[in-house]
Every structure is written in structure tokens, then in C-alpha cells.
Amino acid sequence: MRLTTRGRYAVTAMLDLALHASNRPVSLADVAARQQISLSYLEQLFARLRQSGLVQSVRGPGGGYRLGREPEEISVADIIDAVNESVDATHCNGQGDCWSGEVCLTHHLWEDLSRQIHGFLAGITLAQLVADAHVQAVCERQRARSAAGRGALIGSSRV
Fold first, then answer.
1. How far apart are CA 37 and CA 87, in angstroms?
2. For residue range 8-31, what is the model confidence (pLDDT) as tens digits?
3. Domain assignment of residue 63, given as a range
4. Is residue 39 situated within a structural domain?
5. Longest dimension (CA), the chain
């Protein structure tokens, strides 16, 4: 089983959005900078997240994105599913043609594992992640690094 960068980045970006969305939209440029993810890649992911209703876009000055539902209503599985990521432990992508065109000995085992993983991720919400002490510590470290970076830019722009 392998979760690709698409699924990982989507979950990371949605968690960043949940952590930084007070009463204003969050720009993808800010998410990209904090999480060191390509802005163009985030734009592709957020198009899918918007289509699934997990985020809403806000146009105009001060625009960006906000969550489309309450954080308690968005599971990690919802995010992964929205970006068409598969949590599939089989080697045949669930097709059942893993052994010379037929089901292999362990196909059902890996299929059950895939369902268990999806169920596990469906039981974790953005709200739970936002409240996690480890997540909060990382968020504070990122904020401090971001503030230090802005200070260095301001200091270096003196004439």
C-alpha cells in the first residue's frame, strides 16, 4: 500500500487551511510557502477539492480558500477520495487479476487491509488533527520560521 504525494499533499494542504482559516480566506500562495508545495500543484489539487465541496474559493482582494464544511465533518478519507487517490494494498488495483488474470491467494487479505485503512482514515477528522498537540507544535514552528523569513526579507530590502 502506498499513498502518493497527491494524497499526502492534499491532506497537508487541507490541514494547513484548517489551522490558518480564522474568518478570512487563506491564499494558496501562503499554503505553498508554509508547506513547501508547488503552487501550481496545489491549484490542481484544490480544483478537485472544490469540486468535491471540501473547499470554497473566494475571489477578489483578500481572496483564497476556506473549508467547504466544518472541520468536524471532513475526514482524511474524504480528502484522499476527493483527489482520486487510492488506498489500495493489492497489486492489481483491486481488479482481481493478480495471478495470471485470476485472483491470487492473498488478494482478499490485501483487499480487507485496504478497507481497514480507508475506515481508519474515515475516522480521523480535520478537527481532531487541528486539536492534536503534535500538529500544533509543528504549526507554531512553521509560523516562527515564516515570521523570521519575512523579517529577513524586510531587513535585506533596506537601501
1. 22
2. 999 999 999 999 988 789 999 999
3. 5-85+125-132
4. yes
5. 71
